[in-house]
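re: ur question from the group chat, yeah i did fold both. here u go
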Amino acid sequence: MHVSYLTNHYLYWVDRFDHVLSIEECNNRAFMSFTDLAARESDQVLVTEYCQVEDRLIGFIEAVVEHADTALQNSFVRYSWFSAGAETSLPLFTPAQLAIHQDIATLDRGDENCLQLESKAQLRDFLQLGIRERLKVKLLIGEVYVETGFDMGLVVQNIREDNLLQLASRTGVHVLRKWEHSMWD
């Protein structure tokens, strides 16, 4: 991939895997997303492995925050209903996360809330709900756009590619693809 040194309009797919998985590889994984833990929450090894992967993804976004808007003065979250999910009964959710999830569950699927982020703890709550596919989460961190996706993937835009690759390398995630599209409108 040609590395750009300019902030650009490309959209980047950031993932925990270092390549796009085949169907067979997906089928052979212990988990692809949080929903795979639903019937196996007593498997502490699996839950621990999941939490390590989730922490790596959140660590990447926290690195983006340190790079783009350390004080969160110009950072916003847009969030909308994504899934009710029985998995919210798992002990991996904080009371604050359950309150956010219950609040948004009363809205129509097409509705989207937007608020300015106030703290890194609040950022983490939204990120976990997004990575766990309970909410659709879109972040604007300074000028950098981050969106949670399916199977613990992330989409990032408006960041210098060299900085993105450096942050990804430092936090143990991978940039798998880039394409053109505008997301925060």
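okk and heres the other one u asked abt
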Amino acid sequence: MLATSKQPLGPTVLRFAGIVQGLVALPCMIQLACSTYLYWSHCHDSWYFFTTHLLAASACLGIIFVASVQWKALTTPLQTLKLEAIKAAFAEALFLWVNFTHSYHVKRYIATGLATVVLFWAPLYYAYLAVKDEKRNEILKENETLHFGNNRRSEYTDGPLYADAPEKTPLLQSRV
């Protein structure tokens, strides 16, 4: 049974998305590592494919490593965003390198492009929204403590922000 985390739902969702990403990258890494070994041991004239498969397997290993770090560590939303950006960069490099080094297959490009967007860019966007929401909450809390920390109310508004307050001096003076 998995131990429950003290983190809110957002980081937990991103942790499980990281596990799914790692599980998707694991068979790719195994297949690429096996083909790297075969190129190294049997085809001594093809250094290009050896290097391509070796670097692609390393990118898969990087995705798995970052997913395991994200699973074990308690991270802030900004650190989670950085980890998701690293995984998305590995996935994008893997997508570009492996797909564009072989013959032209539209179906494979579409399938792997959709998988990259769904598996890697969607959690990255979710992590970005979590960071943005955290910063907005910090600003609201700062405004509330700054302007209303000593139980005084503003002369213009009752809320913590001055967005709906009338101007002290209007910007455009009406000429009568």
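fwiw on the second one: Residues 9-148 form one domain. The chain has a mean pLDDT of 78. idk if thats what u expected
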